[in-house]
Amino acid sequence: MTGFHLTARGLTVRYGSTTALQDVDLDIRAGTLTGLLGRNGSGKTTLLSVAAAFRRPSGGQVLVDGEDPWENERIAPHVHLVRESGDVLVSERLSATISMVADARPDFSHELAGTLLDRFELDVRRRPDKLSRGKRSAFGIVLGLASRARLTLLDEVHLGLDAPSRYAFYDALVADYVEHPRTIVLSSHLISEIDRLLEDVVVLDHGRVLLSEDAERLRSHGLSVTGPVDAVEAFVVGRTVLGRQRLGGTAQVTLLGALDETETRAATAAGLELGPVPLQDLFVHLTADGAPALPAAQEARP
């Protein structure tokens, strides 16, 4: 089994007078685990809904495996969107929803579903409307992972889960992804938790693509410089500063951009400590109002 490639070109979606997505161009590579990041209202759920053929674009197009997914009999069985609201048979037992989803997904794994039901302590005799929010989220995860859809779209599925359950989800996601590669798009606000999972990252901001690239390259855009206040401030003159912190005589500055070997040696000679910037911190800085943009050549992968 291989994953589906997802492409958007000039994608625009409007809800009445509100524009949720505006001229979005992006490529999500087949067979990758991609993080879809953005603040509330950035357009993440709208993008996933269009990709899953739950909504038609107002303009532009989305292609899944090279085809328009709307009412596409070849594509539909292999695309699965799991939303926080849940798409289940509310008044039926969980077993009924599992049967419904399994019938619609040719790659559905009853074995994996059973393992995950046990892990999240879900009783298939229960009804969704009798479950706590966390258990409902866990059930959505069971369906999403067990479907093994070639394009699996997970939209904030962790909401309501406690920390142990979230980490159980992450472990199960990675383990099954490695064993059964497909394209997985994971939308989440908990960037610090999913950072280690991601191969590619797409960041939406006010309905537009702020950046789209592999996770390691994105991390290289940020750099922390720590040391005596005067030395730090002298070193960062003329550089793009994303943020500053100070404690007594020590300062830490977050910079946009990487250093060459000469600059790195100069920093070391000045007694400064250089370090990476966590993906979540970089995301917060780059999506802040008035934040500097990434260099034009690095904004999006061809």
Summarize the structure.
The protein has helices spanning 44-51, 94-104, 110-119, 133-146, 163-179, 191-194, 215-219, 229-235, 261-269, 279-286, and strands at 6-15, 18-28, 33-38, 59-64, 79-83, 151-155, 183-187, 200-205, 208-214, 222-228, 241-247, 250-256, 273-275. By secondary structure, it is of the alpha/beta class. The chain is globular and about 65 Å long.
Description of the molecule:
The chain starts with 5 loop residues before the first strand and ends in a 16-residue tail after the last helix. The strands form three sheets. Strands 5-6-7-3-8-9 form a six-stranded mixed beta sheet, with helices on both faces. Strands 11-12-10-13 form a four-stranded antiparallel beta sheet, with helices on both faces. A three-stranded antiparallel beta sheet has the order 2-1-4, with helices on one face. With 302 residues, the protein is of the alpha/beta class. The radius of gyration is 22 Å and the shape is globular. It contains ten helices and 13 strands.
Number of strands: 13
Element pattern in H and E: EEEHEEHHHEHEHEEHEHEEHEH
User: What low-confidence regions span 5 or more consecutive residues with pLDDT below 50?
Assistant: 296-302
Helix content: 25-40%
Share of β-strand residues: 25-35%
> What structural category arises from helix and sheet content?
alpha/beta
How many angstroms separate the termini?
Answer: 25 Å
What is the overall shape? globular
Within the largest sheet, what's the order of strands?
5-6-7-3-8-9
In angstroms, what is the radius of gyration? 22 Å
- Total number of helices: 10
Query: Overall pLDDT, averaged?
Result: 91
Main sheet makeup: 6 strands, mixed
